[in-house]
From TrEMBL, chains A, B:
Keywords (A to Z) from UniProt: Amino-acid biosynthesis, Aromatic amino acid biosynthesis, Cytoplasm, Isomerase, NAD, Oxidoreductase, Tyrosine biosynthesis
Single Gene Ontology MF annotation: prephenate dehydrogenase (NADP+) activity
Pfam family, one: PDH_C
Name the UniProt record assigns to this protein: T-protein
Record-level GO cellular component terms: cytoplasm
Keyword ATP-binding part of the UniProt annotation: no
Domain called Prephenate/arogenate dehydrogenase: residue spans: 103-366
């Protein structure tokens, strides 16, 4: 490098340092302003996540960016990242309490990760939360006395029997709800055991989300929805979106979405292990897309085998989808064994037609994700 | 909402508008300064991607952010996103030509997506590029005359026969290289057919990357590396990282990384299609993680069946990995059929131990990815 080049680069880098320092001040300022919006909203009991306003703001910024020769996608991505930061710190302010007259909340299985998250959210909204775990059944009646909501969040395998055996004498006005990822059987058990208001919830996210903003909670109505309307509002105030669903339709989808997918990821991991693949080598030769896919499989095994067994063994009907998979795999393998390239392409096109416009949409979506995975790369 | 609340929110939103307008100016300014760095680097022939400098800069910014009470991860994410933007616009400036004495470059299969990308990169670096496609073999000798590099990028299935049948009389000083995702057989074919310098390359990315910055190109050395040293440098100047590998080890990894994974995604898509799953419903009940997984499967089918057939049928040895998978699937399915929950958990823990620390690393990595997927959500 010549001296001139070095000097030029030094000079430009100094200017970039200056810009970045202004950038940091602006970010600080913006986060503070949004926090003030949060405080005002909190006092007025408004939800933190307002999709329409967010979309309008982003649209305006994109247009402003375009006018200045900045890529609209760049400003949108940066603002979305900033919004995440703001949602995360909503917790510091707390949330409006929709139903101050409720009485306390009992969370059964409150030591589990999801139980803890909901306990925290309720506490941040001013409710008194009491946890009931395995060892607390001796004084359960005491805990239930005066409770306005009992929330069940125990492993799927024990949910129904626990409801039937332990929750048959709750105060009648008390709401009974659960957070199980299967909805039909628990809802039935709750309705048959408890005479008061009943609702089934399925939070569609892991317990490690930093904020509930934009997350989905599936709601399967049980009995007396007007009595738990406040709970829906409360969850909305945390930023989540409520999706009402029929329990049977939800469970059918879960067989494909959860059980089938987890099972096939599990087998993929098992297969890598049995082949004694060398993970270092796999990563060395991984494009961003494969690294992402490997991460999606590997992440399973950082979690609890019990939890995945619960999910996979939860519905007997999942066995059908999981068994069908092996038949399709065998058929496709036969194409490979016989070198039937044309047959493979014919099947491929059949699936491609079935996906229709979705495949293009998925390609576009995944491209954006892969770009942000690539941004994270260091070497 | 009270009038006071409305007024307070209006006022704060006005202030945020002002901050965002300053933010846009700063982004414009920073992009311009980085473009100037690019121009200076271009003139001096320096690579656009300098990992060590990037890491140092990010470390410094993180510390500055911390001192200002801004989350270090926030500024890092924003700067990484900005760097992507800068890499993308490097193409507008062009790249240093490492070997101006080369003579022209012939790209066989230059109408393919990857061929077009490399043609573009070479052209942006000042090389004269000529494409040779199916219909051009009549005047192939003319195209080869005086060529410094012949680059083969045709479907895997035809690569070796094309090399052996068509490239046996290239000028002896000319470099022969290929971009096939399998390396052993093409390298052997090139070495046996051509007496001059030979090198096998495997770009570990799709043709739709906007920039080669941070992307990996695998290099399998063939003959006379000193003659194609400039090519390695040239690829480095485009921002890619070169990974030297033994062709056999590379191909073995590809059986698991590419063939196995694509095949199982293919069957997953086939299975959804045969089950006549309703994609709308699946998406309605999808957490961000499942949406991501569905997108990773669906994206396959937006692409060419021919291409995937090429990859999956490329190596006979892939059949072993793909067949082993069905055995492991069958074993795991047996656990499910017999309700052997304990057996499932035992297998799970076996795989978990095998993944070791990687599973935790993958969990952390995928969490960051899922957060950025969630940022993109609109409703």
């Amino acid at each position: 490098m010549t001296e001139k080049t070095t000097a030029e680069l030094e000079n430009l880098r100094g200017l970039i340092d200056g810009v970045d320092s202004q950038l940091l001040s602006l970010l600080r300022k913006r986060l503070d302003l949004v926090a003030q919006v949060g405080t005002v909203k909190h006092a007025a009991g408004l939800p933190i996540y307002a999709p329409a306003r967010e979309a309008a703001m982003l649209g305006k910024r994109r247009a402003e960016a375009e006018a200045m020769g900045v890529s609209p996608q760049l400003i949108e991505d940066i603002l979305r990242r900033l919004m995440r930061e703001s949602y995360m710190s909503e917790k510091d302010v707390g949330f409006k309490q929709v139903n101050p007259e409720l009485g306390h909340i009992v969370i059964i299985g409150g030591q589990g990760q999801l139980g803890r998250l909901f306990a925290q959210m309720f506490a941040l909204s001013g409710y008194e939360v009491r946890l009931l775990d395995k060892d607390d059944w001796d004084h359960a009646d005491e805990l239930f006395d005066g409770a306005g909501l009992v929330l069940v969040t125990v492993p799927i395998a024990t949910t129904c029997s626990l409801i039937r055996e332990r929750l048959d004498h709750l105060p009648e006005h008390c709401i009974l709800a659960d957070l199980t990822s299967v909805k039909g059987a628990p809802l039935k058990a709750m309705l048959e055991t408890h005479k008061g208001p009943v609702v089934g919830l399925h939070p569609m996210f892991g317990p490690d989300v930093g904020s509930l903003a934009k997350q989905v909670v599936v709601v399967c109505h049980g009995r007396a929805p007007e009595k738990y309307q406040w709970l829906m509002e409360q969850i909305g105030i945390w930023g989540a979106r409520l999706v009402e669903a029929d329990a049977g339709r939800h469970d059918k989808a879960m067989q494909l979405v959860q059980a089938m997918r987890h099972f096939s990821s599990f087998v993929y991991g098992l297969n890598l292990c049995r082949e004694q693949a060398d993970i270092d080598t796999l990563l060395e030769f991984s494009s961003p897309i494969y690294r992402l896919e490997l991460a999606m499989v590997g992440r399973l095994f950082a979690q609890s085998g019990e939890l995945y067994a619960d999910i996979i063994f939860a519905q007997e009907e999942s066995l059908t989808a999981i068994s069908d998979f092996i038949d399709n795999y065998r058929d496709a393998l036969e194409l490979l064994k016989t070198g039937d390239r044309a047959g493979f392409i014919a099947r491929f096109n059949e699936v491609s037609n079935w996906f229709g416009n979705y495949s293009q949409q998925f390609l576009t979506e995944s491209r954006a994700m892969l770009q942000s995975v690539n941004d994270m790369r260091s070497v």
